[in-house]
Specification:
single chain, six-stranded antiparallel sheet, four-stranded antiparallel sheet, 12 strands, 24% helix
Length: 271
């Protein structure tokens, strides 16, 4: 591919800023504040699964459309990674780049959604006490664990956990895209480098995700690659039934881009 000229680069940059400005005018000026950590527990009859995920290990299963997955982090483990695939067609999967660029932000918190590579919404962030999640750096790998913990630490990593989880659904290594890591307060410094704010995650933080289609989900309880060395503590996973989202649902209406994503999703599901 030929290199772009300075004029082409400038034109592309101007077009990007024009589209970003138009999108910003449609987005809410302020999304809701974080959910309180002491939110009331769900009713027992709404709980479909309640499981403790030990530090270093993974969980995988099917979550049906409309169900809500809550990941609770009682000991403030810095990073819990997640991937999701369309159950009916696993070639459609979470796409970190589209999730960022469609919503014009890498700040994912209550009111935002997670997009697939088909422009459809896989998951909505319906509750969130933390608001510090990373979809830029990705989860830990054998190389990042060796760098942070040493080559013989025995610490498990997200990449290998996802390979094992995918295999349980007939998927392979090639089906594993970059993940999102919750409870991972990654920032970008003025010189363009990534930094990790360890104070951004507090004990008792949680995030609740509503499935917008039937999904295969994999979760790895392994620390973020930029976090300081830590022994990961257990996290709590809960799957709940929930009322249907209304027309004024926050995640469906927060931005014009998210609304179009739901139009694509609803059309696909009704076809």
């Amino acid at each position: 591919m030929p290199r772009q000229t300075a004029e082409q680069i400038a034109a592309n940059r101007a077009r990007y800023l024009e589209l970003k400005s138009a999108a910003s005018g449609r987005a809410p000026l302020v999304l809701p504040p974080p959910t309180k950590r002491d939110a009331a527990p769900p009713s027992a009859d709404s709980v479909k699964l309640s499981e403790t995920l030990p530090g270093g290990w993974y969980w995988t299963g099917v979550i049906r459309r409309g169900q809500v997955l809550t990941i609770a982090n009682p000991a403030a483990t810095p990073g819990v990674s997640l991937l999701a695939w369309n159950l009916a067609d696993p070639t459609e999967r979470y796409n970190h780049a589209d999730t960022i660029k469609i919503q014009w932000t890498a700040e994912l918190r209550k009111g935002r959604v997670l997009f697939s590579d088909m422009g459809r919404v896989l998951l909505s962030i319906v509750e969130d006490s933390c608001g510090k999640h990373d979809t830029l750096v990705g989860g830990s790998t054998p190389a990042s664990v060796a760098r942070v913990y040493g080559p013989d630490s025995g610490m498990r990593n997200a990449r290998d956990n996802f390979i094992l989880a995918a295999g349980k659904h007939g998927l392979t290594q090639r089906d594993i895209p970059p993940c999102i890591s919750f409870f991972a307060p990654v920032t970008v410094t003025g010189n363009g480098k990534f930094a990790f704010d360890a104070t951004g995650v507090q004990p008792g933080d949680f995030v609740s995700l509503r499935a917008e289609m039937d999904l295969i989900v994999a979760i790895s309880n392994t620390p973020h690659p930029l976090a300081s060395p830590v022994t990961p503590s257990p996290v709590e996973l809960t799957i709940l039934t929930a009322p249907d989202a209304g027309a004024d649902d926050l995640c469906r209406t927060a931005t014009a881009e998210a609304a179009r994503g739901f139009v694509n999703t609803d059309a696909y599901l009704s076809a």
